[in-house]
Each structure stands twice: as structure tokens, then as C-alpha cells.
Amino acid sequence: MKAGVVDDAGRPLSAVSLPTEAHRGQEFGLERMCETIRQAVTAAGLQLSDIAAIGVATPGLMDIPGGMILDPPNLRPWKNVPVRDHVYRVFGIPTAFQNDANAAAMGEYWAGAGKEVASMALFTLGTGVGGGIVIEGKVLEGRHSHGAELGHTKIEMTRPRQCGCGRFGCLEAYASATAVVKRAHEALNEIPGPSTLRDLLQRFGELTARDVFQAAANGDELAARLVEETAYYLAIGAMNVMHTIDPDMVVFGGGMTAAGEPFLQRIRAHVRELAFPVPAENTEIRYAQLGTDAGFIGAAACGRQLVVKNV
Amino acid sequence: MKAGVVDDAGRPLSAVSLPTEAHRGQEFGLERMCETIRQAVTAAGLQLSDIAAIGVATPGLMDIPGGMILDPPNLRPWKNVPVRDHVYRVFGIPTAFQNDANAAAMGEYWAGAGKEVASMALFTLGTGVGGGIVIEGKVLEGRHSHGAELGHTKIEMTRPRQCGCGRFGCLEAYASATAVVKRAHEALNEIPGPSTLRDLLQRFGELTARDVFQAAANGDELAARLVEETAYYLAIGAMNVMHTIDPDMVVFGGGMTAAGEPFLQRIRAHVRELAFPVPAENTEIRYAQLGTDAGFIGAAACGRQLVVKNV
């Protein structure tokens, strides 16, 4: 769990991480959450009375307006946890609750890559592909708290890859870090011949997405093809969200952005080919700027919206 | 061109259609537009002084906030036509401008299938697949007037059909009436044996989507397969918009809804299988209710938003 104090301009004044220790149950987890908040306040040299609002963001199936985690995949056996009300009861400070990818989008919108624009879609590229959409200062939460599940839009029917979610043909099944590694293994099995990736696999017994991007940067042909395909898949994701909500900006965040500017350029090039000319030319495609702080900065923005008129 | 007078509850008091005669150019076209409006007012037994606001909706590439048609595919050689300002100058009545599919969505949202909900996505199924999204009373126009181009989201990579827009793998290339007919021809070429569709084709020299749906309703196996596949494609479109904006309701309108309740049931069944459990169970999937009046009713709603606080 990570918490930070954020000032009125979206700048973090502190950042504290504590282990969730999910196996110790949700009572413990909620107290740990509150303790992380307390430590973040102390680390910023402040007191709780200095805090205007709190924002909490978590992954998993949730009821955002209800402030509840319903069934978090990584926090079993947590179930129907009234996070927002608990935190509010403990601190007596207005508390907002948000999905973690939505919060990251809100963070980038408020203080990061999307600072200057009115609407933005974020793809977070990690073990999965998360999504968040902000339009005119509002997180697109959706009617059933399923807004911006962008990794789980379907982009393939004929030979769909199975996704971690169990469904088939999801963007995430093609473009997550997990998918990159899986596709690398497949390619090594299908295509004989020398490859940095084959050497790495033999030496370390496993591959990471980072290995693939690094090998590509160093000129490995097979790795370069995998990276190029990944850029294409992500461009399809970008194009589909552009042809649905047509935002000012599409932002890519998460670990895979370590691949740097060349990867972003390939995504941009594919978006130009794939999308309608006007959005293709005019929609800004950027990397996120706030790193792993985006979540708590965006959660803070959501909290701030409870107590000020505009974020 | 169709125009109607609409009362404060979204009920049409008149409806008038005049031929566009696009070949006579945009000057003529704009005057014809104004004449259609005048006749609609007369047909409602009213005078122009009774009209609080005007809404105009057109197809094609446009600048919605600028009130301009930029490059309408069916109205060449029209180009950069300041529709909204022209209509406002002629009548001196507050005038709104909107994309036609967006207007249809707004019509259904205000006075049709979506009357009771807060957010809605509309797919219009005709020669193409159009789209419109309304969230909390606002049309999702998008930053570049390309919001809700739902027919042009990509759902296939491996063997993508070419779309009328020139791109590949668009939903429209699978699920429009045009696509249904094309897929029928392909199926007849690939699959030998008796079929109502083959008989119809031989008798009339052509097939329509209506033929396919009717043959399916009458038990033709090949036609039934085509209809079932179409329901599946549309369910993918619905699921992708559900996982992006997560609306209260997804509405299907346009000529193909003549296929009736069984077709809608098949779309619903596929949505249940495809989408995440919570939106799959709870998102309402409906047919549009306003027919071809949806466009002018929704345009009127957009006009009305200029002069009242809430629609």
C-alpha cells in the first residue's frame, strides 16, 4: 500500500509504502491502510488537522459510488469491504474512493501528462492492461463501476488469445507485459535460429518483458518484431478508445513505458495509420509522467473534488 | 431532409421530408434545409415565433462546436458549410448543430428507449453502423467531433474484412446491412446446397439484409447462421462500449431492428457471455423506439439545451 500527501497543485509532499499482507485479512488490511495514511502525513511534516480530504484507490471488483471493494482478485479473502466509510470513520475527513487505474488517470490528468487537456484516456501497461478515462475533470466511472476496462475490449475474433480474465481476444491478452513474455516464448518455439532471447532464457530459465524490450533495443530481430507487434496492438487499443470517446490525449503508463521514446513512436505511427484522419493527426499520444505516484495523486484529486469546486 | 416540431416532452408535432438534391450544391441545400424547417412549423399549425430553439443534425465529417459540415460523403461537392450560423441568420432562433447519429442517440435518450436512464450508447444499423453516446444529458461529441464512431472500432486483426471507410476489421464491415448482404453472397459461394437465399438471388438478381433476416425467421439454415453471426458481432460492439464507458443501456436502432425480438435476444445472449459479469447482468440492451424520428427529436433536444437548464 502506498500513500502520500499531495498539495493543491498535485505535488506529492511525501510517499510511504507498507506491505499489504493480504493474508492477514481485511480488518488488518483496513488498519494497515489507515496506518499508511498516518505515516504519510507524518512524513510530510504535517498533522491530520492539515489534511482537507482523503482519497483511497484500490484494484478489483468494486462499487465506486458505494465506496466498497466487492471481490478483489489479489486480496482474497477480502469481500464487500466498506473502505470509504471505514477510512472516514477513523479520520473524520471527507474521503473519496476510486478504482486504482481510474485514480492513476485522474493523477495524470490533474498533475501529469494530461495537465493541459480537457479529456484523456490512460492505458496502464503492467502484468495486465488497465484503463482510466477522465472527461472534463470527471472520472468516467460507468454505471456499474466498470468504466474504462480498456484492457478487456475485444480486438480479435478469428484466433483470439485467452486473457487472464478468462475471456478471449482481449487487448490485455496481446499487449500486457505477461502477454509479451508469452508471445516471446511462442516465437522462440516457432522460429529456430539464434536470438538474444533464447540465450537469456537458457541462462536465467525465464524471460521478462524488459528482456524483450532491451533485446529489441540492442538489435535482436525476433525481439524487435515482438515489440513492433506490441506497439500495433496498443495502437488498436488507442484507436478504439479514440473512436469511442475521442479524447484530447491518450496516455500510456506502467512498467512497459521503460521501453522509452522509440516504442512510443511506433505506437504513434500505428495510430496514424489506423485511426480516422482527424483524430489520427490531432490526438496527442504520450507517456505518463508521474510513475507509481499517479495512483495516490489521482486519489488525492478525487478527495479534493469533495471539498473544492474544481480540480 | 426531415424536419419536425417537437414539444417540451420530446413528442413530435409534425414531420416533413423534402429531397436533398445534393447535386444542386450547398447554397440550394441550405435553403432547402430552411424550407423544410418552415414547412415543419406550418405542418404543426404553429408560427416561427412559437419555436424556442432549432437543432440541425447532418452526417459526415464535421466540426460540431463550430457548427460546420466539413466534408460530407453523401453531399459532395459540399465543403466547409457553416450550417448552424446560416440557419441562425435565417431564423434568428438559437440553433444547435449535431452529428446525425449523435442526435439519434440524444432523441432516444430524451424521449425513447433511454428515457429513464442516465447514460446510453446507441448503435444505428443501416448501410453502415453509426454510433452515439449520451452521458448525463450530454452528447459525447469528443475533442475532434469523432465521439462514438462505434462502427469503426476494430474487432478483428487476423482476417479483417475491409470496411466502407477503407480501413480493415471495423465492426461496420461485419455488422452493417451491407456487410450482412456481402457475407450472404460469400456464404452462398462457399456452401453448396439449397437455400431460400439462393432462390431469392436467382429470382431477383440481388439480396437485401431484410431477405436474410426473413429467410432466417422462416427457418433457412444458412440465413439463420448469418443472423446469429451478426448478433455476435453486434454483441462484441456492445461489450466493447460497455467496457469503455459502461453505460446504463445499449440501444440498437436503424433498419435492421426490423428483425425483431428474436434477434435482440441473440444479441443479449452473446453480451451475457462476452462481457464482465456485472455489466453483462445489469446493462440493459434494447431496441430504439423512435424510428426515423429519433434524429430530429434529438436535434430538437440539442436545441432545447441552448435555452433550458435541463433536458
Describe the structure.
The structure is a homodimer of 311-residue chains. Chain A has 11 helices and 11 strands. With 311 residues, chain A is of the alpha/beta class. Chain A has a 5-stranded mixed β-sheet, with helices on both faces. In chain A, 52% of the residues are buried.
Which two chains have the most extensive interface, and how many residues on each?
Answer: A-B, 44 and 44 residues
Shape of chain A: globular
Question: Strand order of the main beta sheet of chain A, please?
Answer: 9-8-7-10-11
Summarize the amount of helix of chain A as a percent range. 40-55%
Q: Give average pLDDT of chain A, whole number.
A: 96
At the first level of CATH, the class of the largest domain in chain A is: Alpha Beta
Give unreliable regions of chain A as ranges.
Answer: none
Question: Beta fraction of the residues of chain A?
Answer: 5-15%
Number of domains of chain A: 2
CATH architecture of the largest domain in chain A: 2-Layer Sandwich
Give the name of the CATH superfamily of the largest domain in chain A. ATPase, nucleotide binding domain
Structural class of chain A: alpha/beta
SSE topology string of chain A: EEHEEEHEHEEEHHHHHEHHEH
The total of beta strands of chain A comes to 11
Report the biggest beta sheet of chain A as strand number plus sense, adding barrel if it closes.
5 strands, mixed
CATH fold node name of the largest domain in chain A: Nucleotidyltransferase, domain 5
How far apart, in Å, are the first and last alpha carbons of chain A?
24 Å
